[in-house]
Amino acid sequence: MTAFFHRRDGALAVEQVPLARIAEQFGTPTYVYSRAALTAAYQAYAAACAGHRARVQYAMKANSNLAVLQVFAQLGAGFDIVSGGELQRVLAVGADPRKVVFSGVGKSEAEMELALAHDVLCFNVESIPELDRLNAVAGRVGKRARVSLRINPDVDARTHPYISTGLKGNKFGIAFDDVLPTYRAAAALPHLEITGIDCHIGSQITEVSPYLEALDKVLDVVEALEREGIVLSHIDVGGGLGITYDDETPPDITGFARTLLERVAQRGHGHREVLFEPGRSLVGNAGVLLTRVEFLKPGEAKNFCIVDAAMNDLARPAMYEAFHRIEPVVPPVGSNPGEAVTYDVVGPVCESGDWLGRDRALAVAPGDLLAVMSAGAYGFVMSSNYNTRPRAAEVMVDGDAVHLVRARERVEDLFRDEKLLPR
Ligand code: LLP
Questions:
Q1: CA 377 – CA 204 distance, rounded (Å)
Q2: Does residue 97 have its Cβ closer than 6 Å to ligand 1?
Q3: Considering the domain 35-282 in this protein, what is its CATH number?
Q4: Within 10 A of 25 (CB to CB), how many other CB atoms are there?
Q5: 49 labelled catalytic
Q6: What mean pLDDT do residues 130-150 have?
């Protein structure tokens, strides 16, 4: 529980609004975000950046709802994007595309053209073929593309293997031994302007030490390049800072960011701009998934609490065995913890992997509301229509105001573009 999701007279509320009221008004399953929580997380980064040449590029893959982007754009954030579609979201909220960095291993020519047309801050490039493609596209449209190379520092982020990206065996980044030759190759391409370096070693990282290890390697590269006359103006340290889902104790945002900025300054690089690319740490604990209990199904080996949200709404448990706390929204009247029963909380999707929480002690009855906590990052954005389930509504709370920021999908939307064969 955080300052923004808290209990009022026993009932779970977000800012000043009881979650039960949101369920009444918008139904379930529904994602609920707190504007104040988004703002506080951003300000925690901004506090560390004050007095340094540093900025925040929100990694919008974590939650790209337009209202979320709008909040961060108003606070002054730039964005880290991974597709042309994400760039179009930036444009749709009227944010400045010149504050965008474009990441990802497989940018298409069309995406490069779109990004060049909008003059993005830089392309984070991950391979020689990508450099060649970008050089060709930039030449064709008569521009010079600003480029940063994403290096793979071969550092163990000590996180889940699916979300660890900085080790040799990952598809991401330029292998450490190839970094200098790749910069030299980039420097020889006429339509590219080398401006920076970046790395991203993984996600849900709960210690600072892997970051410092990676940063030191990055700074070694910056110094080696400078000796060859290749001068970089920015250092992008990636995202990946973890949050508390259960009992993890990640460093606090401001302390974490300060530690990195201090290391940059200590090593004499304070004149270069530092970019942070956080996703989860800005939005993860700013959202919950609100769901209603359909049935309780006792069993010999397991008891099941079947709810109306499923793996199609929140894929993280099924995909990574990720843990999300599950809280009753309104504890039943007169209940005491002794009445709790241990349940697997599961959805209606036809897969055994469709679960949201395992072995949870809950005192619940059919019709009760539950909140799946810490669902603001990689929640809605990873949802699907599996089993022809319309995607959930999204709501943003701002003080005592409640805004529907994405209407619940309707079944007709799901097969609108499908066609029957000619008879
Ligand atoms: N920058 C780059 C280049 C990235 O690939 C990512 C995330 C980020 C920044 C933001 O990382 P964050 O601060 O959010 O950890 N779906 C997984 C997480 C995948 C992360 C992908 N890359 C999950 O639900 O845990």
A1: 11
A2: no
A3: 3.20.20.10
A4: 13
A5: no
A6: 98
